[in-house]
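We emphasize that the prediction below concerns an isolated chain of 357 residues; any contacts that depend on oligomerization or on bound cofactors are therefore not represented. The input was used exactly as deposited, without trimming of termini.
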Amino acid sequence: MRRIRQTALLALTAGLLVPAGAQAATKVLTAGPPVNKPPKGVPKDSDTNAFYSNKVTIHVGDKVRWQIAGFHTVTFPVKGKKPPAFISQDATNKISNSNDAAGAPFWFNGLPRLVLDPQGAFPAKGRSYDGSKLVSSGAPLQQGKPKPYTLKFPKAGSFTYYCTIHPGMKGTVKVVAKGKAVPSAAADKKAVAAQFAKAVARVKGADKFAGPSGNAVQAGNDSADGTTLLRFFPAQKTVPVGTTVTFSMSPHSAETHTFSFGPAAYLKQQADGFISPDAKGPLVFNPLIGYPSDPPAAMPPYTGANHGNGFESTGVLDSVAASPNPASAKITFSKAGTYSYICLIHPDMKGTIVVTG
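Result of the prediction step, given as a token string:
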């Protein structure tokens, strides 16, 4: 299950995967960067949560094949409906026996378990799509390179599809009658190159970001087109004792992150247990990642000894207005020291707060 929590997946790369001689009846797209080799100057901790190209036109009866380049789904909901969630609450089974290092129960015991939503995370069978029922590649939950996902489109229309893992990541397949003109393979390749060139330019610019002003740290420096940097800005922040630091998501981000303090071995254990099987059926999302370590309305000051071992976490944050997750959290640092934290979803993201006396 380690694949689920990949960090930069593949840094943005060049060498477009769309073949110049693609068959007219099957157009090839990618979910994630359309690339094989990193372009010069692109940060290694960058990624792009986008479909390439995000718009394609085909004839009735033609197919589209998506090469999955990263941790993504290709999900077509019933036409006009919203896509399903990747993670949902299982209200029939509550969290239990989740205790901290001191043996005290975490506050979220008794709340719904967080599970992989069957519709948003697993394949929904179907070899064609006409808008009448949900079809999906599902998430690449197994080790190894994901298999391509192919759909046939027997009906004219414009169909929007999504990645259920990265909010805002979507594309459109326009299906026209056989007698109408559609872009050539060369034109499609040019569109992919133009879209990707913009993403590369944006992520290079985002790399220069110094971080938000004031007592604040930001996770990522992302753009609405899906480019992302899996990094904290700034990586180190120095504040005096008693300072409240705001930990926030990057605006427009399609990612989810946590700011999680504690011993490295303990944090690694939680990150490694990102998703786990359960005897009751669904795959369970680790509640120490999904929920904050303490009630969000009463996050305690950080002393380095919280919960018996120094664990304190914001839980999942995101930038989606409709999401139940907050976009930011505040932690007050009440004792001098140097405190390290990571994102439990992307554990290669690391930061430090230095608290001076």
